[in-house]
Design goal:
mainly alpha; about 375 residues; 14 helices
């Protein structure tokens, strides 16, 4: 039986969540247009991490293929809003040109969620590393499948969305002044740049989906997910339908990934197989681990990590000398050095915080509670 009321601790969390949401929505007034674009991607990754954590952190099913579900969502949006293109046979030849990007977001989520739900049935026979390898196979096969169905996906060339009528805030610029010619009003503010609009769109959806995930996981469904994660035998003995909840977790997780993929397609205004590479699935799992398995709001740290750490690694690669001392190592300007820096930082973070940001928060809360009890 689910808990219908909030206790005092949960009321405090809700108040903090509302305060954080207000701060997030006001942030574009304080940052540049370029930073707004970067933080928009953080919101997109947060949505994907929320879904992946439902599957991996709360249900215990490891997935290395969520980039494929993001690709399903991204291509769904791209196909639905693309203009007529005789070369690709897209647009008005197949779908209506009146489809707006905002309408395609839930559709993309539902299609990806259905794909994840269906994949959950054969995945019932797999656990642990075997399940991880099966999901990774999906991520590996997705680019080849996209290229195979060139009529709908555009093959390796992809689908161009820049300037299409289906985008709510079409990134068009005046050819003389190079200023934005179309705007959108949000919270009484006229948004004249595509990046600000993208920020508001991604974070508004991220906040809503965060609240939905929290509501689902605090009730009966969340307890069933955690029971499956902790012990499938004990969960089945307690009356938990393993097949139902494991496939449901896959469906919910893929739905979140589909929504994130749809937003990523809108953000990049272009999709092709390279938009959703194999490494995307790995980065998503890294973000969940850094944020903390079985946590929700610390996943923001994971989203920031996977968005900004590669950029920081590239910046760190630039000004460093080619060698240290007479040994002549290491060469930080060699090809692939940013990836090495990324890996080293990730190892150091995991050594310092093995439970991720969520584990650190729980440890601080435990120490604070222990100190409070001693004072009393």
């Amino acid at each position: 039986m689910s808990r219908p009321y909030l206790n005092r601790a949960e009321l405090v969390r809700v108040a903090l969540f509302l305060l954080a949401a207000a701060a997030v929505l006001l942030l574009p007034r304080l940052i540049s247009d370029f930073r707004a674009q970067q933080f928009a991607y953080v919101g997109i990754y947060l949505i994907a991490l929320l879904g992946l954590n439902v599957l991996t952190g709360f249900t215990g099913q490891i997935s290395l293929g969520h980039g494929a579900f993001m690709a399903i969502g991204g291509y769904t949006t791209a196909i639905l809003i693309s203009n007529s293109d005789p070369a690709l046979k897209l647009g008005s030849h197949v779908f209506s040109n009146d489809m707006k990007d905002l309408w395609t977001i839930p559709i993309a989520g539902l299609i990806a969620g259905l794909a994840g739900f269906l994949f959950g049935f054969p995945a019932l026979r797999l656990t642990g590393l075997y399940l991880a390898l099966a999901t990774f196979a999906i991520a590996v096969a997705t680019p080849a499948v996209i290229k195979k169905f060139e009529t709908f996906t555009g093959g390796g060339g992809g689908i161009q969305l820049f300037g299409v009528e289906g985008l709510t805030a079409t990134p068009k610029t005046d050819p003389i002044t190079f200023e934005q010619t179309e705007g959108v009003t949000v919270l009484g503010r006229e948004i004249t740049t595509f990046n600000d609009w993208l920020y508001y769109l991604s974070w508004a959806i991220a906040i809503v989906m965060f609240g939905v995930a929290w509501a689902l996981l605090r009730g009966r469904m969340g307890r069933a997910f955690r029971a499956v994660r902790d012990s499938e035998l004990a969960a089945a003995s307690s009356g938990v339908n393993l097949a139902r909840y494991k496939t449901l977790a896959f469906g919910i997780s893929a739905f979140y990934a589909g929504v994130a993929g749809s937003l990523l397609a809108i953000a990049t205004t272009f999709v092709n197989p390279d938009t959703f590479p194999i490494t995307l699935s790995i980065f998503l799992l890294v973000g969940v681990v850094v944020g903390g398995l079985g946590s929700l709001w610390p996943l923001v740290i994971g989203a920031i990590f996977i968005q900004f750490l590669p950029l920081w690694a590239q910046q760190l690669n630039g000004p460093l000398p080619n060698s240290f001392g007479p040994l002549g190592v290491p060469d930080f300007k060699a090809p692939g050095a940013p990836a090495v820096v990324y890996g080293v930082i990730l190892i150091l973070v995991m050594l310092a915080f093995p439970g991720g940001a969520g584990g650190l928060v729980r440890r601080v809360q435990s120490l604070a509670t222990r100190g409070y009890d001693r004072v009393r």
